[in-house]
Structures are given as C-alpha cells and as structure tokens.
Design a protein that fits this description.
Elements: H1 4-21, H2 39-46, H3 50-67, H4 72-80, H5 95-104
Amino acid sequence: MKRPWLKQWMKPLSEWYANAAGYRKLGLRVDDLIPEESDVVMLALKRLPPKEAYDRVFRLRRAFQVTQPSQLGPLLHKKLQSLTAYSVRYRISCFPKISRPSLRR
C-alpha cells in the first residue's frame, strides 16, 4: 500500500458511514444490498452454497418484517444489529469469475 496513513484516516469515516446507512441495524450485509437485475448478479446468486443462499433470504425477509409496523418490530430490532465482524462480503468473490466469460462474448 502506497499510503497507509490514508487508510488509517479513512477507516473510521467508512465505519461511521456504514453504521449511518442503516443496513446493519436491520441485520443485513453489504452484499444483500446489490440489486439483482443484472445477469452477473443472478448467476452469482445461483452459485452460492445452499446455506449462504438460505441465510441471505432469511436476512432479507427478517429485515422486511422488522421494518413493518408491528409489535415485534422494536423488540427484534435491537437483537438484529449486525456487527462489523459479521459484515463479511460473500457474493463479491464470484463476480470476477462470472464477469470474465461474459466480457469475452
């Protein structure tokens, strides 16, 4: 890395922005926010292991249910907040493998 001081300066800013975005409060990960309209994303979703695919759908449904006005929403909301350690990118690793063949066409 050419400028390690820049990473040290930007890391707290990026953490603040990720927390302010609100997706962690709903228990979502970064890759859950990527729109599913492109063919590359759909192919990456099909290549996910079954456990990751189930967990992803579960997180999306749970986030939708928590955002609905109900009596369970505020109770579940505090339990769902994901930490930085759990915010692991799981889908991005498939994109380079998928997009290379599509670029050749």
